[in-house]
Write a structure and sequence with these properties.
It is globular and about 50 Å long. The longest helix has 23 residues, at 114-136. α1 links the parallel β1 and β2 (36-41). By secondary structure, the protein is of the alpha/beta class. It has a single domain (10-251), classed as Rossmann fold, CATH 3.40.50.720. It contains 8 helices and 7 strands. It catalyses: a 2,3-saturated acyl-[ACP] + NAD(+) = a (2E)-enoyl-[ACP] + NADH + H(+). The active site is at residues 150, 160. This is Enoyl-[acyl-carrier-protein] reductase [NADH]. Belongs to the short-chain dehydrogenases/reductases (SDR) family. FabI subfamily. Its EC number is 1.3.1.9.
């Protein structure tokens, strides 16, 4: 990429699991656009895969990775303290984290247990608040915060179960954070991609069937690719989108416009 709209920007990305992750597509695109990069990964299990991905990137601009368990407040604080040693400020933050216990995705929605509900919302929604709150002080020159949602936040996707209400809450969180962070010129938005064959998506029963349905029914007659989501994330990270905040933007080949 010859055009470097993020040259000199500092970006923090959470949610990279492997090379198919949407978070990795965004991280890679931001890095190609000139951003310095720090990846926050979940646990020792992901350390080597994340470091292997970073090793494929050019050494300039720099890219680093540090552990961060988003269910642990102290780890979040420690992560940003470590980031501050390398970056004097943050300009961009991507939250691409979602989790629901396997049992909660296999049962009827009304059978969701209190424990599974709390765990799902803690990891999928509260982690966004916690990361944004801790990062806010480092956004000394405004910037852009993004998270990833899904159409199941707005309409019923039968096998999405507890993740639907969680994504609804996440999109509402985007609006409230956008309102409160706006005076500091920090923009907060959500991307809502169509189905993409990621590790997280494969945990949803019937996912392959839904991929085929979206391809057949969407106006563009195909499914979205991770690199296309990353392109929109690049736009929302750049100064070209400085008047956009509090929005959920669909990147789904038009599937979300359909009615009967």
């Amino acid at each position: 990429m010859n055009y470097k709209p993020l040259l000199g920007k500092n970006a923090v990305v959470f949610g990279v699991a492997n090379k198919w992750s949407i978070a990795w597509a965004v991280a890679k695109t931001w890095h190609e656009a000139g951003a310095n990069l720090i990846i926050g990964y979940q646990g020792e299990r992901l350390k080597k895969p994340v470091e292997a991905l970073l090793s494929e990137l050019p050494s300039s601009p720099p890219s680093l990775a540090f552990p961060c368990d988003v269910s642990n407040e102290q780890e979040i604080k420690s992560f940003f303290s470590e980031a501050l040693k390398h970056f004097p400020k943050i300009d961009l933050l991507l939250h691409s984290i979602a989790f629901a216990p396997k049992e909660a995705l296999e049962k009827n929605f009304y059978e969701t247990t209190r424990e599974d509900f709390i765990k799902t919302f803690e990891i999928s929604v509260y982690s966004f608040i916690a990361l944004a709150r801790e990062a806010k002080a480092l956004f000394t020159d405004g910037g852009s915060i993004l998270t990833l949602s899904y159409y199941g936040a707005e309409k019923v996707i039968s096998n999405y179960k507890i993740m639907g209400p969680a994504k609804s809450a996440l999109e509402s969180t985007v609006r409230y954070l956008a309102y409160e962070f706006g005076k500091d010129q920090i923009r907060v938005n959500a991307l809502s991609p169509g189905p993409i064959n990621t590790l997280a998506a494969r945990g949803i029963s019937g996912f392959t069937k839904f991929l085929k349905e979206c391809e057949a029914k969407s106006p563009l007659k195909r499914n979205v690719e991770a690199k296309e989501v990353a392109s929109v994330a690049l736009f929302l990270a750049s100064d070209e989108s400085k008047a956009i905040t509090g929005q959920t933007i669909y990147v789904d080949c038009g599937y979300s416009i359909l009615g009967f």
